[in-house]
Amino acid sequence: MEGPFSERGAVTAEFVIVLPAAIGVFILLGAAFQVQLQQAKLFQAASVAAREVAWGSGDIVQQSGIRFEVDRTSERSCVSASSTAQSGPLTAFTTEQKQCLPNLGY
User: Which of 2, 92, 93, 99 is deepest in the core (most CB within 10 A)?
Assistant: First the structure.
C-alpha cells in the first residue's frame, strides 16, 4: 500500500524536466560544430586565395557563399574571406578569416 507521499511518477516528471535541457545541449553542440566547419572552410579558401594573389595571378576562384576582399601592398598581400551561415540556429552568423603572405610574384 502506498503512503500519501508516493514517489510514483517521479521518474516521468524528472524526465520531462531534463529532456528539453538535453535537447538544448545537443542543438548548441550542433551549432558549434557548424561554426567550426565554416571556419575550416574559410581558412582553406582564404589560404588558397592569398597564395594566388601573392604569386601575382590576382584571380581568386569564387566559391559559393564566400565573399573575398583583397588588400595588397608592395610587400604583402592579404585576403579576407567571410561567410554567413544560411541555416541552423546560428542563421545570419558571420565568420571571417584573414590570410597574409609576402608578395612572391615576378
Answer: 99
* Cα four-point dihedral sign 9, 13, 18, 19: positive
What is the per-residue DSSP string for 14-33?
HHHHHHHHHHHHHHHHHHHH
Task: State the DSSP string of 19-76.
Answer: HHHHHHHHHHHHHHHHHHHHHHHHHHHHHHHHHHHHTT-------TTEEEEEEE-SSE
Of 84, 79, 85, 74, residue with least CA distance to 97: 79
C-alpha cell at 23: 535537447
Enter the pTM of the model. Answer: 0.70
Task: Kindly report, residue by residue over 21-37, the tens digit of the pLDDT.
Answer: 999 999 889 888 888 88
Three cell numbers, residue 3: 503512503
Task: Report CA 80 to chain centroid distance, whole Å.
Answer: 15
Question: Please, what is the end-to-end C-alpha distance for the chain in angstroms?
Answer: 92
Phi first, then psi, for residue 94 (nearest 5°) are -105, 135
